[in-house]
Amino acid sequence: MAPSRRNSFVHLSRSNSLEFISTAAPKLETAVDRSVPDHEPAEIDEETKYFHNNPAPSYLPEVKKKVSDFIQSHAGKRPIALVTSGGTTVPLENNTVRFIDNFSAGTRGATSTEYFIANGYAVIFLHRQFSLLPYSRHYSHTTNCFLDYLDEAPDGTVQISRQYQDQIQPVLRDYKRAVDQNLMLFVPFTTVNQYLFTLHLISLELKPVAHSSLFYLAAAVSDFFLPTSRVSEHKIQSKGGSGQLTVDLDPVPKFLKRLVEQWAPGAMIVSFKLETDESILLFKARQALTRYGHQLVIGNLLQTRKFEVIFVTNDAVTPYRISKEDEENGKEIEALIVPNVVELHKKWIASHE
Ligand code: 9Z3
């Protein structure tokens, strides 16, 4: 009997992945959770309040197990990078028809993951589900549909077109090596709530690895969200109301300071700062560095993020650039970013030995 499609997929998929988890916004028990108190005592900080008032994703125990196994298998052998990637969503309904999203495709995170692996790292890839993935990203753009790379031979077998063999072979080799050596763990999220709970969990799991762990926070995280207690259960109706929809969003707690100080005190932490106005980028990157007390802020502009970034540390401001021509010839800015981050991480490790 022919195997079902699903079974053959499960059988063939060897990568270490939690993709089977559905991160589509979960249906919660009630639209309005009356058990959640409106105001917490002032001494409880914002983070504690956030994790208390918003529900943990039901699949977190599975993530914990996989992450813990992954870390154990690499600890002491190679550095481990946590790469976050893609944009988080803010659902407006529990049975989610509408949500707030952002532009991020996950290119930075997926591309950087490949370079970290090439530089000897194991990578936990915490990514927006269905955004770009390392290695397969080369063939999942709409302009680069994977079917265009395939031909049907006269006997009906499907094969890679001769003209693309040279292009696909190195990517395939790198991918197989990463999978065979268990160098990537894919952990998905969709909502900002899932992202925060999962980031918190992975940070705590990485604590024992301390200095040899690297946080590379490239995900575009929502700045505002709708707390669980105000999310309506069903689709918001367009008829019957005033015709206008007013959404009152709360600020997402600034978790980076807590991450630096409490969740991952030994790790080297790299955050990204995204702006659209060049005149404030450096100021904002420096401000983030002082405010959160971590090691490196990589500043980038929405418009030029694929060609230039600035590294801002306590000691220096260093720009890295590739030309438009380089980019058109297949060069990637991550080929400059990642080795330079790796150098800083080596120094970080050495300074703590
Ligand atoms: C970045 O700045 C990333 O480089 C991009 C990558 C999101 C621009 P793509 O996924 O884009 O390749 O399309 N990430 C961080 C953005 C962010 O939300 N940073 C926060 C901020 O700027 C600080 S954690 O306030």
UniProtKB/TrEMBL annotation:
InterPro entries: CoaB-like_sf, DNA/pantothenate-metab_flavo_C. GO terms for biological process: coenzyme A biosynthetic process. One of its GO terms (molecular function) is catalytic activity. This is DNA/pantothenate metabolism flavoprotein C-terminal domain-containing protein. Belongs to the PPC synthetase family. It comes from the Eukaryota. Residues 209-306 form the DNA/pantothenate metabolism flavoprotein C-terminal domain. It comes from Magnusiomyces paraingens. Gene3D superfamilies: CoaB-like (3.40.50.10300).
